[in-house]
Design a protein that fits this description.
Structural class: mainly beta
CATH topology of the largest domain: Elongation Factor Tu (Ef-tu), domain 3
Number of domains: 2
Distance between the termini: 54 Å
CATH superfamily of the largest domain: RimM
Mean pLDDT: 93
Low-confidence stretches: none
Order of helices and strands: EEEHEEEHEHEEEEEE
Strand order of the largest sheet: 2-3-6-5-4-7
Helix content: under 10%
Radius of gyration: 20 Å
CATH class of the largest domain: Mainly Beta
Number of helices: 3
Strand content: over 45%
Length: 187
């Protein structure tokens, strides 16, 4: 393992939240690129689980646990320091590593706010109880977020898109794994 990394197991609720882009400065700091516009998950956890880069050179194997000392925003990215990563060489060795954080360490969202990762896989039904599909992904279109649903019709896999805005979303029930919408199958 690299300096600063401990061998670890990926938590069962681990979510990929970003990757390490490069070293930042000469004192072991590194730049992290979050997958989300709001890097709250990176700031909420002092334990980042790293997996090697998918492409390019691999400087470690398996899962590494990195104990974060400090993280802050800088010029649209996140810069961080970690225990045991004391110089530029140590930080450069982390380049490309994928960052995972335990979902249980995410900050609690405000009322009527949801993490996208929590919506993936939820069943979507309309007010009449007609199944419209399962949330496959969410897209940020600039003005609004759009749910992309997958469903089967006549043996074919089809997708349906529904804006994730209050006028169409009646209820999100994470415990029941269901979203109720004001939407018809023929829209």
């Amino acid at each position: 393992m690299l300096p600063g990394l401990e061998a670890a197991e990926l938590p069962a609720d681990a979510i990929e939240v970003g990757r390490i882009a490069d070293a930042w400065g000469v004192k072991g700091w590194f730049k992290a690129l979050p997958h989300s516009a709001d890097p709250a998950a990176l700031f909420s956890s002092k334990k980042w689980f790293l997996l090697p880069a998918e492409k390019g050179p691999k400087t470690f194997s398996g899962v590494g646990l990195l104990a974060i000392s400090e993280a802050r925003t800088h010029a649209g990215t996140v810069v961080a320091s970690a225990q045991g990563v004391d110089d530029r060489d140590g930080a450069e060795a982390l380049r490309g590593a994928r960052i995972f954080v335990a979902r249980s360490s995410f900050p609690t969202p405000a009322a009527d706010e949801y993490y996208w990762v929590d919506l993936i896989g939820l069943d979507v039904v309309n007010r009449e109880g007609i199944a419209l599909g399962v949330v496959r992904e969410l897209l940020a279109t600039g003005l609004q977020t759009v749910m992309v649903l997958s469903f089967q019709q006549e043996g074919k896999s089809i997708e349906r898109m529904i804006p994730f805005v209050a006028v169409y979303i009646d209820q999100v029930d994470l415990a029941a794994r269901r979203i109720v919408v004001d939407w018809q199958p023929d829209y």
